[in-house]
Structures are given as structure tokens and as C-alpha cells.
């Protein structure tokens, strides 16, 4: 068979509620020269049946149904299995605009110095209803991307990304040490070998709901993001990346030894704790105890009374009282 222009890479794990809509949005693209890799990563719901049914109807779909290995393993497997020079990421709960692939292929063809291009996104809820955006849009040019890296801002929405396969393979693909923030780590590593950008159009509808991965693993994601930025600074300074060969990140207390920097572990704790303050999922979960531990060890109190009020709004009055009591005790009141 002739080589397709694009390989679409989608990994599914128990994604049945939204899977058909996501697949339909890919099959409905006005750019049709693609193959569609769908890895079912050991789902226990109806996802495998849905994937098989669509594969029987459209020969562009190449299903891979197997046991659970995790998202990073699935992504790297699809990169190695891809037959196209360009790979379009897609998640099983999001929706592509019909002209997404067309716009991104045209951009990469016109800008050979760019290895990755994403797009702006539109937030939707469980039932597809539009949600009000609260954060800034993603940076557009590579120069804006570097500034965003330095300030800890957003880079590229993972399911909206299209990238050149060989450039990603050249940097080792996705690293398993950064599970739940594997995309951020990849963009940071790629930023030193190619240009990154976003098309300033909302080519993807990004679904937000309480059970999505970014909500369920908010604390691990925040910690991993801070460590990924620390590794980026090491590479930028011309030093070896101490995370390059890791399969898993070590406990925070071991980061000083790993990086050879006194105080890095505390910096990671502080940045991670402060980064959790606006996450309902984190404050309702183990992130709350992480925050309390940070404060008990002398962490910054500024703005923490607003977090007490936020906990009340999140429906966590007992946790709000625990945080208020800690703040009162530490202030000597």
C-alpha cells in the first residue's frame, strides 16, 4: 500500500463513552490521506468492540488490541508502527474540527524548520457543552514558546499536536519517567532541536470532566512537570540530563542527589504544592496532604486563606477547617 501522508495515533483505555464521537471526527476530516492507528490498551469496557466495528467499516483504521501497558508505551508503539512521516495525536475523548489535519499539514509543509505544530482548543464538558475558558491560549511562534517555557506557561495541547515522526524518534520518543506529563517533557526536549508552534485557531474540542487522566493524576502531573523543567534547565546549561535514562522519577527527597543540586527537592515541593492550589481534583485527593506537609515544613503562607475559601467552594469544608487551623496555629493566633 502507498505510504500515507499522516498517521493518526490514538490510545484508548476504557474510553467507550466518548470514543465513537472522537473516531467520527477523525474519519470526517476533509484531508483523507491518513492511516488511523488505534491502540486499545487493555480496556475492560466496550472500547475494543467499538474499535473493531469501525475498523471493519474503514480500511484506514489499523487496530491494535492488547493488554494494558500504559499510555507512554502505547504512544511509542504507535510511533514505531507509523508508516507516515507526520503523526497526528488524538485522544479518545476529544473532537477534531473537520479541517484540523489540512491546516496542520499545510503549516508543516510551508515551515520545514518546525517539527511540531499544535493548535488552540475549545473546552467542552461531558455532554459536549461549551465551557468558559479561564487560562491563556497557547503560544503561537517558537519564540513565544521559549518564553512560555521560561515562565512555566502552557506549550502545546497534546491531542491537538502534529509532529514529524523522525524528529521525535531522534530524541527517544516519550519517556516513561514522566508518566502523566510525558507530552510536556517531549516538547521541552524537542525545543532544543526544532521549532515548535501552534495554529491560532480552535481546531480541537478538548473535553474536561472529573474522571479524565489530568484530573485523577493532578499531583503526579504537577511534580513531574516541575522536574521536567529542571531537566530542561540542565540541558540548556550544557549539562547532562539526569532524567534521560530513568524509567521512573525518584522520590522528591532524592532529587538533590540525582541533580547534584542542594535545595532542588524543596523547590520541587514548593512549586508542586503551589501549582495544586487551583486543582479541585488535587485538593480533594492526595494533593491536600502534600500541601499540608509542605506548609508544616515552613512553606509559604501567602494566599493560603484564599485556598481555605476555595476548599469550601469545592465542597470540602473539613479540609478547609484543617487548613485554617494549621494557618492559625502557625501565625500564633
TrEMBL record:
Pfam families: Glycos_transf_2. GO terms for molecular function: transferase activity. Residues 7-171 form the Glycosyltransferase 2-like domain. PANTHER family: GLYCOSYLTRANSFERASE, UDP-GLCNAC:BETAGAL BETA-1,3-N-ACETYLGLUCOSAMINYLTRANSFERASE-LIKE PROTEIN 1. It comes from Novosphingobium panipatense. The keyword Transferase applies. InterPro entries: Glyco_trans_2-like, Nucleotide-diphossugar_trans. It comes from the Bacteria. Keywords: Transferase. This is Glycosyl transferase family 2.
Amino acid at each position: 500500500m502507498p505510504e500515507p501522508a499522516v498517521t493518526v495515533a490514538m490510545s484508548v483505555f476504557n474510553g467507550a463513552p466518548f470514543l465513537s464521537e472522537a473516531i467520527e471526527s477523525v474519519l470526517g476530516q476533509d484531508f483523507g490521506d491518513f492511516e488511523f492507528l488505534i491502540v486499545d490498551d487493555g480496556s475492560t469496557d466496550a472500547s475494543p468492540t467499538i474499535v473493531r466495528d469501525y475498523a471493519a467499516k474503514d480500511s484506514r483504521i489499523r487496530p491494535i488490541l492488547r493488554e494494558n501497558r500504559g499510555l507512554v508505551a502505547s504512544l511509542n508503539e504507535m510511533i514505531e508502527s507509523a508508516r507516515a512521516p507526520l503523526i497526528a495525536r488524538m485522544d479518545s475523548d476529544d473532537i477534531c474540527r473537520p479541517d484540523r489535519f489540512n491546516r496542520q499539514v499545510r503549516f508543516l509543509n510551508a515551515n520545514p524548520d518546525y517539527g511540531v505544530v499544535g493548535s488552540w482548543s475549545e473546552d467542552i464538558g461531558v455532554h459536549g457543552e461549551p465551557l468558559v475558558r479561564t487560562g491563556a491560549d497557547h503560544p503561537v511562534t517558537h519564540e513565544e514558546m521559549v518564553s512560555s517555557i521560561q515562565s512555566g506557561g502552557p506549550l502545546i495541547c497534546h491531542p491537538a499536536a502534529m509532529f514529524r515522526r523522525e524528529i521525535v524518534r531522534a530524541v527517544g520518543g516519550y519517556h516513561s519517567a514522566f508518566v502523566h506529563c510525558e507530552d510536556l517533557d517531549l516538547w521541552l526536549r524537542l525545543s532544543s532541536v526544532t521549532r515548535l508552534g501552534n495554529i491560532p485557531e480552535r481546531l480541537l474540542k478538548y473535553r474536561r470532566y472529573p474522571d479524565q487522566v489530568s484530573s485523577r493524576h493532578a499531583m503526579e502531573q504537577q511534580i513531574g512537570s516541575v522536574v521536567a523543567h529542571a531537566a530542561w534547565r540542565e540541558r540548556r546549561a550544557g549539562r547532562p540530563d539526569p532524567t534521560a535514562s530513568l524509567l521512573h522519577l525518584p522520590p522528591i527527597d532524592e532529587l538533590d542527589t540525582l541533580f547534584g543540586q542542594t535545595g532542588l527537592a524543596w523547590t520541587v515541593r514548593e512549586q508542586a504544592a503551589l501549582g495544586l492550589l487551583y486543582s479541585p481534583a488535587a485538593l480533594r485527593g492526595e494533593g491536600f496532604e502534600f500541601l499540608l506537609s509542605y506548609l508544616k515544613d515552613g512553606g509559604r503562607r501567602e494566599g493560603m486563606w484564599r485556598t481555605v475559601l476555595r476548599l469550601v467552594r469545592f465542597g470540602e469544608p473539613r479540609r478547609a477547617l484543617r487548613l485554617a487551623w494549621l494557618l492559625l496555629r502557625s501565625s500564633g493566633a
